[in-house]
Amino acid sequence: MAHYFENDDTLRRNEMKHLVQIKGHDFSFWTDSGVFSKKGLDFGTRTLLDAFLEENRSGNVLDFGCGYGPIGIAISALTDSIVTMIDINQRSIEMAKKNAIQNNVSVTIKESNFYENIESTYDYIVTNPPIRVGKESLYHILINAKDYLNDGGELWFVIHKDQGAKTTARDMETYYHVEIVTKNKGFYIIRCKKK
C-alpha cells in the first residue's frame, strides 16, 4: 500500500480504462499500477460522491488525495464548482490530468505533500483519505483542513467502520460541527463544518 504515497518509477505500468456512471452521467477513467483503486471506481468513493452530489453544491472545491481523479472530475462535470485536485503521487497526477482531458473538464491539478502547495481557501474539501498512512497522518489531513476552508466551509470524507469511522467522527467534533450524512455497507460519509 505504501506505493500510493511514494513515487516509484520502477513500478511496471499497467494502464486500464474504465467506464463508470456517476449520478446517471457517463465517465471514463484511466488507472494504472501504483494508483489507488486501479480496478475502477471503489465503493467508498462512489458512496461519497453520491452523498456530496445529492444536492447542488457549488463553490471552490479541493479534492485532497485525488488519485486518478474521479472525485474532482465528477464534481467539476456535475456542478458549477471551481475544482483544484492534489496528490503526492506523480503517477496519480499524470492519470488525473489524462482523465480531466478524457472527460472534458477544466480543473487545476498539482502535486502537494499534505497542504504544503495550497495557498487558497475552499468552500469544500472532499477526500477519500489514505487511511493506511496511519492515524497521525490521517488526523493531520482532517484537522488541518479547517485552515483551508472558508467560513462555514465543509470537509467531506469517507471512512469505513472497520477503519475507525465512529472514533474519527467523534474526535473531529473538537474542531468541527460533525454530521454523519449516510452509511452504506460499513462506509460512513462524514461532513465536518468549520466552526
Walkthrough of the structure:
The protein is of the alpha/beta class and 195 residues long. The chain has one domain (58-194): Rossmann fold (3-Layer(aba) Sandwich), CATH 3.40.50.150. Helix content is 26%, strand content 33%. The chain has five helices and nine strands, in the order E-E-H-E-H-E-H-E-E-H-E-H-E-E. It has helices at 43-52, 70-78, 90-102, 135-144, 165-172, and strands at 16-22, 25-31, 60-64, 82-87, 108-111, 122-127, 149-160, 176-184, 187-194. Strands 5-4-3-6-7-9-8 form a seven-stranded mixed sheet, with helices on both faces. It has a two-stranded antiparallel ribbon with strand order 1-2. A hairpin with a 2-residue loop joins strand 8 and strand 9 (187-194). The longest helix has 13 residues, at 90-102. It is globular, with a radius of gyration of 15 Å. Mean pLDDT is 92; it is low at 1-5.
Properties at a glance:
alpha/beta; disordered N terminus; 195 residues; two-stranded antiparallel ribbon; Rossmann fold; seven-stranded mixed sheet; 33% strand; globular; 9 strands
CATH fold node name: Rossmann fold
Give the distance, in angstroms, between the N- and C-terminal Cα atoms. Answer: 34 Å
Stretches where pLDDT is under 50 for at least 5 consecutive residues are 1-5
User: Describe the biggest sheet?
Assistant: 7 strands, mixed
Counting H and I runs of at least 4 residues, what is the number of helices?
Answer: 5
Characterize this entry briefly.
With 195 residues, this protein is of the alpha/beta class. It has helices spanning 43-52, 70-78, 90-102, 135-144, 165-172; strands spanning 16-22, 25-31, 60-64, 82-87, 108-111, 122-127, 149-160, 176-184, 187-194. It has a seven-stranded mixed beta sheet, with helices on both faces. It has a two-stranded antiparallel sheet with strand order 1-2.
